[in-house]
């Protein structure tokens, strides 16, 4: 039934492009948030891993931010 459809057995190339765009849109803000809170920016990449992204969110929300400890935080 799907044999006549050109999208039947393979992933459409636009799908991978769309996934790359979404990854960039999500990773860049997560990277910046990690940097601004004093944690390494590479931790922002963890936002792409299911379930780990929830742990990252809670970790950033409820941990003591290193930037606050250095005195560079809010006035």
Question: What does this protein look like?
Answer:
By secondary structure, this protein is an all-alpha fold. It has a domain of 40 residues. The protein has three helices and no strands. The radius of gyration is 19 Å and the shape is elongated. The protein starts with 12 loop residues before the first helix and ends in a 6-residue tail after the last helix.
Number of strands: 0
- Percent range of helical residues: 40-55%
- Overall 3D shape: elongated
Structural class: mainly alpha
List low-pLDDT spans: none
List keywords for this structure.
75 residues
In short:
The chain is mostly helical and 75 residues long. The protein has helices at residues 13-36, 52-62, 66-69.
Secondary-structure map with pairings?
Layout: H1 13-36, H2 52-62, H3 66-69
Keywords: Membrane, Transmembrane, Transmembrane helix
Transmembrane segments: 12-33, 39-60
Organism: Marinobacter azerbaijanicus
